[in-house]
Amino acid sequence: MTNDLFALLKKAGRKAATQRGAPRHEVKEEGWRGLAERLGKKGSGEKGLDLMGLWADQGRVLMALFQPETGQFGLASIKVVDGAFPSVGALHPPAIRPERMIRDLFGYDPVGLEDQRNWIDHSTWHQSMPLSPQPAAPSQPAPYPFLASRGEGLHQIPVGPVHAGIIEPGHFRFTCAGETVVRLEERLGYVHKGIEKLAQGKTPLEAAPICARISGDSTVAFSLAFSRAVEEALDLDIPQRAHWLRALMGELERLANHFGDIGAICNDAAFAFIHAHFGILREDVLQAAQTCFGHRLMMDRVIPGGTACDLDSGGRAVLLALLDGLEERLPALIELYDSTPSIQDRTRTSGRLDPGLAHAFAAGGFVGRASGRSFDARAAFAYPPFDRIALEPACAENGDVDARVWVRIREAEQSMILIRRILADMPDGECRIDLPAPGNRVREGIALVEGFRGDVLVWVRLDRKGRIARLHPRDPSVFQWPLLEDVIRGNIVADFPLCNKSFNCSYSGHDL
Amino acid sequence: MRTLLFQSIFAAPVTARAPAPSAQALEELGRKLDKSARRLLGRSLAIREVDAGSCNGCELEIHALENAVYDASRFGIRFVASPRHADALLVTGPVTHNMKVALERTFAAVPAPRWVIAAGQCAVDGCVFRDSYANANGVADVLDVDLHIPGCPPSPAALLEGLLALMQN
Fold it and tell me: Considering A44, A126, A359, A502, which has the largest number of Cβ atoms within 10 A of its Cβ?
């Protein structure tokens, strides 16, 4: 008797998709529920499943599943019958928001889901159910009832969508007892741009610039996930050098963002000195990226088929000099962070994420790894060149703001080692190959890659002409945002910026 | 910390040299603003930034304006938390329909005389998000724009060149 994911999928329904990586099984209602019941069950003796994504396609709802014990990754899909499908969110809370998103975009009803409120549809679009074959008239504006908190002396603080700093927009509704937060509820969707629909009907190369702009700080990660998904769908092997160049850009992106985050977290605890120094380190990385790849954030440099640019010996020297400079300055700053009581007083024990919740929500990135969930897509899937470079995910157990800072520090150090290794071992050759003809066949592809924030998932379905029939990108923030609501509970209002920055969830990546 | 502070006293500054105001921006502003209006700004510019649907790329580069390398505050440019303290709105993104009301209300809270700067390609013409059911095709669809700073995202140097043009009498 086996409870391996592949066996479970086989038992639940027949294999439907032809992609070369993860299998997709079309399952019936009973099988769907069976899989949903196994989600987030860690340490209960049976092999649990992590929900990695939940989205709809025409007439179908899909979920991506990962089994930590076996490392198996697969997809289950269920047909939508009479505009409805059995809710996963009713059994597994992390699925609630993805299902509300499906309802807003397709009009499919998750049967059994208690929450009937719209999520990203704020009744302002030119149409409702924009991804269904027949979009409807705009939804009627209605008040958005926030979840109630009852008790003596409670008051509410509404924050956003326009925040005080230079950050993305979203609404936070705090209910507080004095200084202490009793409940936080997020309302998102303010930056929804209809990315999934914009990509439809385009060729993969035409859609690549859209994917590069899903979340600007993770442009390399999204481009990589999209490109890998397209390449999987087209059964395409790209030149080895392209894999290494992509990984190089990915690690530079991680470095720049981690430096920015560490500085910004300290800044939110009024430690401006560290912020100033990490700002310089981040700037150094971006300027090196500009010199080597012609763009500070490396947008549009990773494309289906390989990379849009190569690295010459001059660029290699720039990156080596960058690493020398970073390695010289970083240790003193880390030492300063670790030995200053005033900052430690703020970051330690603040915003603690319970490891159980981190596992249940399959929280990726530093959010999950600071609470003991060791998943890292680079290690879990060993996509090239990580099939040649062993990687030990940086983990911590405390789950507080300090732990999330330390995971970032360790990952930044690791990235610098990885970049040196990549520069040393990168094979010569071409860095791009043309995309093949689709062969008059509908094709699917899925990819999971590790961005700085966590695992980025992209699923594509190509039509017979090789155009994008459906694109679904899933930012790691989708499963991190709900956890922030729990993390702030019991903390003081003034620590919210600190907790929020230590999560640094993406609004644009979530809202699409 | 003392060692680091001590080192920075003797180290050369990391700050980049001041760029010249963008000629393109000067021309656009010259057409729109009379000199007396711009003189009101004096040598300071208080900016309220509003993300109206960007991918966050523009915000990263606007943040960089405040780092030690670009150090926008040496020109009197500072970012304020409240629109009531602002001379100008710096708007990014194509303006999603879900953000339209918030943007209009933020603009209404800025005391006159006030300026609107559309930063980034999305804010200029919608960029890759053009003609979506969920957003406008740039800030000009919603507010009168005084200055456009193109680029995806505009580099901190390009942002600085545009802002300096606004401040130049």
Answer: A502
Interface-testing mutation among B2, B79, B110, B128, with chain A (most A C-beta atoms within 10 A) = B128
Q: Is residue A168 part of a domain?
A: no
- State which amino acid sits at residue B70: Y
What pLDDT digit, counting tens, does each position of A403-437 carry? 999 999 999 999 999 999 999 999 999 999 999 98
Backbone torsions φ then ψ of A466, nearest 5 degrees: 85, 10
Whether omega before A341 lies within 30 degrees of 0, making that bond cis, reads no
Looking at A93, A111, A129, which one is the last position of a domain?
Answer: A111
| Residue spans of beta strands (DSSP E) within A101-229 | 109-111, 154-159, 171-177, 180-187
Q: Is residue A208 one of the residues assigned to a domain?
A: yes
Residue A135 lies in a domain: no
Lowest-pLDDT range of A139-148, A323-332, A394-403, B23-32: B23-32
Could you tell me if A105 and A209 lie in one domain?
Answer: no
Write the pLDDT tens digit of every residue in A33-58.
999 999 987 655 677 899 999 999 99
What's the confidence (pLDDT) of residue A41? 78
Closest residue to B134, CB basis, from A164, A193, A260: A193
pLDDT at A79 over 80: yes
CB A177, CB A156: distance < 8 Å: no
ipTM of the prediction = 0.92
Q: Give the structural domain span for A459.
A: 203-474
Give the domain CATH number at A17: 3.30.460.80
Which of A57, A88, A111 is where one domain is finished? A111
Phi-psi region of B131 (alpha: psi -120 to 50; beta: other; left: phi over 0): left
By three-state DSSP, how is residue A345 classified? helix
pLDDT on residue B37:
61
**A442-490 pLDDT, tens per residue?**
899 999 999 999 999 999 999 999 999 999 999 999 999 999 999 999 9
Residues within 8 A of B (CB atoms), A 140-169 only: 161-162, 164-169
Same domain, A91 and A236: no
The helix (H) or strand (E) run that includes residue A73 is: strand A72-79
CATH of residue A299's domain is: 1.10.645.10
Structurally, chain A folds into a number of domains equal to 2
The answer, for B146 touching chain A at a CB cutoff of 8 Å, is no
Other beta carbons less than 10 A from residue B1's beta carbon? 14
Angle among Cα A152, A153, A159 to the nearest 5 degrees reads 125
Domain match, A214 and A354 both: yes
Output the pLDDT for position A253: 97
Same domain, residue pair A301 and A412: yes
Best CA proximity match to B49, nearest among B16, B80, B6? B80
Q: Are residues A456 and A308 in the same domain?
A: yes
B3 touches chain A (CB under 8 A): yes
Q: Are A279 and A263 in contact (CB under 8 A)?
A: yes
**B51 neighbors B96 (Cβ within 8 angstroms):** no
Between B43 and A141, residue with greater pLDDT:
A141
Q: Which of A130-139, A149-158, A378-387, B6-15 has the lowest mean pLDDT?
A: B6-15
Inter-chain residue contact A210 with B153, CB threshold 8 Å: no
Q: Looking at the structure, do residues A462 and A323 belong to the same domain, yes or no? A: yes
The answer as to whether A193 is a domain residue is no
Q: Which of A355, A479, A352 is nearest to A43 (CA)?
A: A355
Nearest CB to B134 within list A194, A210, A217: A194
Residue A163 neighbours by CB distance under 10 Å:
19
Residue A91 and residue A233 share a domain: no
Tokens for A16, please give them.
């439907």
Gap between the Cα atoms of B150 and B124, Å rounded: 6
Q: Which of B49, B93, B155 has its CB closest to that of A191? A: B93
